[in-house]
Give the backbone structure.
Amino acid sequence: MDTPSPQPDDRPQDVRSRILNAATRLFATRGYDGTSIQAIAESVGITRPTLVYHFGSKDQLRSEVLERMLGRWRDELPARLQAATSGSDRFRSAVDALLSFFHADPHRARLLVREILDRPEEMATRFREQLLPWTMLLTDYIRTGQAEGRIRREVDPEAYVLQFLNAAIGTIATGGVTSAVIAGNPDLERQLAELVRIARRSLFNDRPHPE
C-alpha cells in the first residue's frame, strides 16, 4: 500500500505548523485521551492520512507539541540573556521570554498544566532534560546579583525561579476562571502586570533615595 502524500497545495512546514497549533488547542481543551486524530485533522482542514503522513501517530504528535513548547524556552532564553546589558534588562528578558510565549496562546499553558497532572513522572523527566540548563542560567544570574549587592540576599534562587514559573503558568492557564472570585474580574494583562511587579519588587534591593 502506498504511503499517503501531503496535499499538493500545502507546503509541508505550513501543514505541520497548523497541525501542531490545532493539537495544542485540542489537547489543552479536551485532554489527550479526549482528542482523536480525526478531530485534529478536521480542525486543520486536512484528511486523517495527511496528518498521519506528517506525524505517524497521536502519541508522536503529542511528543512534538511538547518538544516545540519546551524547546522554545531552552533555545530562546540564553540568547536573550546574552543580549541584555544590565541586570534589569536580564530580568525583563527572562520574564518576557516566558510570558510572551504563553500569553500569545494560553492553550500552551493549559496543556502544560494538564500534562503535569496526567503524566507527572514523564513531565518531570522532560523538564529535567529540557529546562534544567535554562533554570540554572536564572539561578546563577540571581547569585551573581546577590554577590554584587543588586539582589536581595534573602532570596532563595531555586525556590524563586520555581515559584515564578508556577505563578506565571498557573495565571495564564487559569486566570480567566479564577478572576471570577474578584469583583470586576481583573483581566489577564492586569494579573500578569501585578505578578511581574511582585517578582521584581521581591528580587531587587531598593535603590537608595537621595537626601
Q: What stands out?
A: The chain has two domains: 12-56, 65-203. Residues 146 and 153 are 6 Å apart (CA to CA). The two ends are 83 Å apart (CA to CA). Residues 1-9 have pLDDT under 50 and may be disordered.
